[in-house]
Every structure is written in C-alpha cells, then in structure tokens.
Specification:
With about 325 residues, the chain is an alpha/beta fold. The protein has three domains: about 5-55, Rossmann fold (3-Layer(aba) Sandwich); about 60-90 and about 285-310, no CATH class; about 95-280, Rossmann fold (3-Layer(aba) Sandwich), CATH 3.40.50.410. About 30% of the residues lie in helices and about 25% in strands. It has eight helices and 16 strands. The strands form five sheets. Strands 10-9-8-11-12-13 form a six-stranded mixed sheet, with helices on both faces. A hairpin with a 5-residue loop joins strand 9 (about 130-135) and strand 10.
Length: about 325
Amino acid sequence: MSHQTILVLDFGSQYTQLIARRLRELSVYSEIVPFNTSLDAIRAKRPAGLILSGGPSSVSDAGAAPVLDLSPADFEVKEAGVQRPATRATLGADAMRIVMVADTSDGAAAALTHIRAGLLTFLDALPPEHEVMIVSTGRQTRVRVPPTIDRKKLKDAAAGLFSDGGATVLTDTVLEMDDRFLRKADHRWPVFVIVTGDGTEGSTGAHEKQFDQWIAAMPARGITAHAVVLKYKGGGTPEIIASHLAQTSGGIYEFINTSNSLPERMKVVADRIVADTKAMATWYTVEFQSDGPENGPLEVGVARSGIKLRISHRRGAQ
C-alpha cells in the first residue's frame, strides 16, 4: 500500500522524536533524517512535506566557517550574573561512556532472544573508541560488564543474558549507574541506551523526587539517553520513564509492539551515535569554576572579535 511521507529533518531539537510520534499517531507516515541529508536522498524519498526540527549550536566566523582554535581565555562565562573563569575549552567530540541497560524482568522475558540480538547489532555498529557497559534491571540492578572497549567481552555478556524475573528497577539503575560510573568519568560523553519492557517498575519509591531532579539536570550535564520500549501492555511506568529520559535529552525514543524488529531499531540508535560524534567535531565543551547551583542561569560569550556563538541545550547532531 502506498503512503505519503513527511520527513523530519533533525537539527537538534529535544522534541524531534515526539514530533515524529505525534505524526504517526495521526496516521501520517514520517521518517527522521539527519539535518545534513543530501538533497538527492530527500528527493528519492518523494516526501509530501518537510519539518525542520531544532537549531544548530556552534562557533563560527563572519563567513559561517567553524572556528577551531579557541582556548578557555576566549570564553566569557557568567553564572546568575557572576563572572566565572573558564578552565577548559575543547572541541566536543569526546568518546562516549555508554551505559547499555537491558530489561531482564518478567515484563521482557518473552523478548529476551531479540534483546540479545539487538544488543549484538548495536555493538557491531558502534565505533570502537566508545566505552560500553552492560547492566540488567530484572529484580535488581546487575552490572554484567563494567565500562570497557573490549567488544568480545561485551558481546559474550550480551549473548549470555538470561531472565532474572520479577519487576524492572529502571529508576534505581539509572541513578546508581550515573553515580558510580558517569559523574566521575572525566572527558567522557555520558550516554544511556535503554531497552525495556513496559511491565512493572520495582524501584524504591523514595527516589522519585531525586529522579525528577536528576532528569531536569540532564541537559546541563550533557547526558544523552536513547530508549526502545517493548510495548506489550501500554502505559507502564518503565515506558513513561524511558520516554521522559529520551525526550528530555534529545535522544531517540521508539516503541515497538513486536520484538523481532529490535535489532533494526538498535542499529538506528548506533547510527545516531555515529552522527552525534561527527557533529560534535566542530563544537566546544566549556568547563568553568562554580560555587553556584547546578542548574543556575548561564551566559556564555566569546571575547574574540568577528565570532558568532550559538549555544545548544544538549550535545548531538544539530
């Protein structure tokens, strides 16, 4: 059956996935494509319309060419109106530390074979410089493999995943992994890749307020989260958590009703990570000394003349 297609060109908006989802809910077929997709590739899809989502962030000169030689002394940072010294300014294509979260609870047990296949597909498509760790969430948080670039060790662990039963503990897992493995991972881009069912969430209820605060801080900390949800019942707490994480950070959020398409979805996530890494090659990550609140208002400028500065709320393909 033929259908008309709407293409969503992703320029970096945190709502790109939400836009595509809303179109599908209106029975309109849509595809998300990178902002730098060639005109020929767009024409080949014969779209009925285009949606441009988000906007870029970069440092460029008057001719729009990227400026690649800035130092901390070139940046002026104010936090809540107070001048702060910039301590580091580097091009932003840091290698990632990826926390790969796999649901091994009862809610995802029927899809376990495809979850294994999806993780393996993801690892095969991922550039070798990125660290990955594998964590499962069935009944309790289990670190299957700590952060490593050893793809064989990761693949062996992914192929050997088994069901732990019980509820999933997605909230507790995200908070614990961030505290143990991401907060002190200097010069690593923190990323979550989540594969979860939509069954019962068994995390500690007392962490709810802490988790809400953590999500609000994601953009400021440069954390990206991508999520694929196995949607069997619909409306489960893990689905809501995964959606919130991905949409807040500008990551991919997809839900599927049959798990056999999971490897394909995980390949899309890996491709997005490749695109994000390339896009950050002309951006700067700026660090500064601060004794203010974690999410205080910031003003950033460049002292060098003839420079245009645009600031993004997040890392990624802009």
